[in-house]
Amino acid sequence: MRQAGRMSDVGNPRDYLANERTHLAWVRTALTVIVLGLAIARFGDEGTVSVGSVLAGSVLLVAGTGVVVYGSCRYRATARELADGEFATAQSTTGPVMAAAVLTGAVLVALIILLLPDLVS
């Protein structure tokens, strides 16, 4: 009988490659958020640089950097677990859900910062 939380074939290359693909997806998502932040910082307020556009862009830059850090930590933890023959990281979806919530929140905060002058006047 297979023990819960243990893999039957340790060192399966498909698992390592899947982990790497997942890490690259985290990096791709983070780079997209960072580029969006840079674009907003430069062109966010009717094509001009303003305090609001720089602040909104900075929020997205910080969020994107956080996604790179989280994705890299998760990649390393999963690689370590694969090497040890354990796989506990996938049993919890709290991290990815929180990362998605933080990214969504960052986009909403950036949007509110950009729209706030229009809403006030």
From TrEMBL:
Coiled coil: none annotated. The keyword Flavoprotein does not apply. Keywords: Cell membrane, Membrane, Transmembrane, Transmembrane helix. It is found in: Cell membrane. It comes from the Bacteria. InterPro entries: DUF202, IM_YidH-like. Its main location: membrane. It is a multi-pass membrane protein. Pfam families: DUF202. One of its GO terms (cellular component) is plasma membrane. The keyword RNA-binding does not apply. This is DUF202 domain-containing protein.
